[in-house]
Write a sequence for this structure.
């Protein structure tokens, strides 16, 4: 089924906000097996909105519209959609009650504008808005559909999950199921090579690879006549892939690497501490973004200067003089010192040259040493991210540290 | 002048990447006084691309296209633009030389595909690509323009700044100049109230306020018959605004607060250290994102546990027992201990409840204490971000710390 995503809002045309709604809906629709042919954005102008809907619906089977459903005079999506799809707006008493309740619950006064939000097209399937006041709806004419949702991402994503997705699933001819696997430590081309026969021979399930900022993703999707069949087809393929490249897969469920590592530490009841130089606290900041992490993360050091490495971690001054701050020896003494100072179960250290300055022929920008200690296991890993930017090197080093923790606890 | 932004690329329709090009161009065009009427996205399909350009150009004076200029068979923007604007592609020898040089410089082999990139419309104004191989161009027909740029954001923004912006400035009737002021510590509504007479009475310069994740922005723009006049009109207005709300303005030139603080520290040759609890290293990570910051940032502590606060910073166990880890007293002892341990000129400490758990009636989620010490100046500031998410609290606390440093060094 061919679809288009239409975003309504002048603030998008000013570049004030990023269109995350289009990204979210594109992912969801593609994952459900719909084809997304266009993204369009127009301002709060009824004439341009009407001609955009009219011309787009000639080309596709369904338009998903976000925005322009609010209570102000600018919000005209409902009226325009109604005109183009030849319907009329009527008061929906149930929604009117829900909006009144919403205002009582939040202790605010309901204005006449808000009552206008209870107007919906007479033939529409109405979607209740649990996160706000503007209802959404789906309207059909001659086998073509327009689906209207509120613009605020929180309201839109909530309505999509609760109401629109089930509505679309019913429309779809068959049951689409998919899994998103995430991998670290293998490049996209090597991954494709290892799975070439699967990718080349695919019909259903389909297997697609994506590269994304230092990691790879695998999307495995199947469309069958029952949900159970589709689930089984996906799982069977996941098992095959897991046998070939399982060591690189850190999530079978589209999780971030830091969340996986945080959960593992919490489940295993291990404490952790970090000593960072080139990443400057990125590891600690990423880990402490997880609620409840204080159960496992106890202390971090950002030993940016040599003095701090000596003072806080007990790194030998001779080691720094002989091998330099960016060296296997320093990374080792950092992680050993960290374990001694904090007594944590798991300790990580990192020292490197993030650039753009500070590189030499012997020790170029991008050279990074990661130290790891857990019980008797203690080692240093060398990484080289040649030719990359400061941001890239820091972010990839963060992923590198996290993956070492994941593989060794 | 009415414009539309057209992004070409199937990966956008898959939701794999966010359309930052449209955001960047929208901001730039609006700032230069152009009206952005539409954003469109189409996949790598010549038929749909052609009809999109054909229908859009009826409605606007200029289309800015990004993407589809690469060397592969998918890249068809040039051919399609040429067809719609009735021109033909010819080899541009200068570009061919530049592409060959690029391959020599980067030590790679040039393929026939790459030579195809030297083809440009015969009537076009050509824009050289300093950051890649695909050239951009502007093509005119019957007073309407199409401007094509490469898709990768780094190449596109570079080409826009170097070549497209000057080209557009010449097209514009008059000279547009603007400044983006950034403010912290004042809400958008209070800011509007303080500038109400200016905003209400505005014709030229125009003054617009935006709220953005804990800060406010003010855009002051003027369009005059000469650049000097426009510059002066903007500067005069900036002076008036500066007199009213100057204390909140951290940048007159659209800089990030962390970059402003980093620059101030480097200029004043001050060393700094941090002791973070609830922000978990965010401050250190943000500051160390700045190249060359090792001159000023010496050491950071992420004292997430009470033990770490006592061990690393010398916080009294009785203080923790009596007042708790999240208290004015603890924040004060943290910053004093930090100064003693590191000897840095400027020291900051932070302790708070980032949530979602851990809050009480007396000490709710969002309660944060920030300690600051510089010479004899030593104080603790209390902040309360009630009802907010963990991410919001952590990010706003980071801005709060940075602003305290900015105001006190």
């Amino acid at each position: 089924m061919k679809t288009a995503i239409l975003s309504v809002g002048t603030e998008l045309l000013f570049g004030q906000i990023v269109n995350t709604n289009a990204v979210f809906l594109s992912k969801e629709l593609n994952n459900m097996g719909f084809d997304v042919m266009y993204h369009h954005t127009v301002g709060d102008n009824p004439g341009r909105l009407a001609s955009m809907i009219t011309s787009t619906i000639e080309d596709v089977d369904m338009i998903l519209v976000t925005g322009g459903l609010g209570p102000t005079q600018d919000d005209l999506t409902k009226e325009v959609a109604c005109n183009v799809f030849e319907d009329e707006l009527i008061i929906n008493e149930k929604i009117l009650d829900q909006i009144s309740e919403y205002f009582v619950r939040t202790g605010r006064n309901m204005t006449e504008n808000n009552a206008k939000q209870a107007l919906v097209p007479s033939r529409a399937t109405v979607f209740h808005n649990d996160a706000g006041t503007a209802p959404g709806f789906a309207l059909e004419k001659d086998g073509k559909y327009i689906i209207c949702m509120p613009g605020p991402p929180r309201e839109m994503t909530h309505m999509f999950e609760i109401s629109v997705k089930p509505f679309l699933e019913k429309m779809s001819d068959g049951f689409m199921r998919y899994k998103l696997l995430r991998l670290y430590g293998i490049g996209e081309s090597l991954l494709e090579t290892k799975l070439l026969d699967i990718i080349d021979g695919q019909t259903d399930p389909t297997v697609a690879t994506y590269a994304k900022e230092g990691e790879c993703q695998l999307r495995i999707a199947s469309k069958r006549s029952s949900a159970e069949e589709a689930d089984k087809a996906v799982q069977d393929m996941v098992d095959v892939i897991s046998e070939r490249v399982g060591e690189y897969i850190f999530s079978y469920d589209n999780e971030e690497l830091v969340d996986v590592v945080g959960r593992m530490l919490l489940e295993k009841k291990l404490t952790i501490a970090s000593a960072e130089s080139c990443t400057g606290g990125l590891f600690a900041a990423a880990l402490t973004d997880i609620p409840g992490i204080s159960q496992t993360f106890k202390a971090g050091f950002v030993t940016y200067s040599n003095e701090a490495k000596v003072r806080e971690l007990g790194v030998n001054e001779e080691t720094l003089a002989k091998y330099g701050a960016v060296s296997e020896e320093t990374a080792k003494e950092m992680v050993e010192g960290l374990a001694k100072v904090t007594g944590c179960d798991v300790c990580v250290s990192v020292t490197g040259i993030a650039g753009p300055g500070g590189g030499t022929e012997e020790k170029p920008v991008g050279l990074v040493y990661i130290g790891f200690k857990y019980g008797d296991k203690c080692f240093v890993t060398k990484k080289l991210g040649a030719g990359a930017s400061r941001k890239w090197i820091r972010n990839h080093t963060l992923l590198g540290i996290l993956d070492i923790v994941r593989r060794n606890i």
Q: What stands out?
A: The first helix of chain A runs from residue 10 to 13.
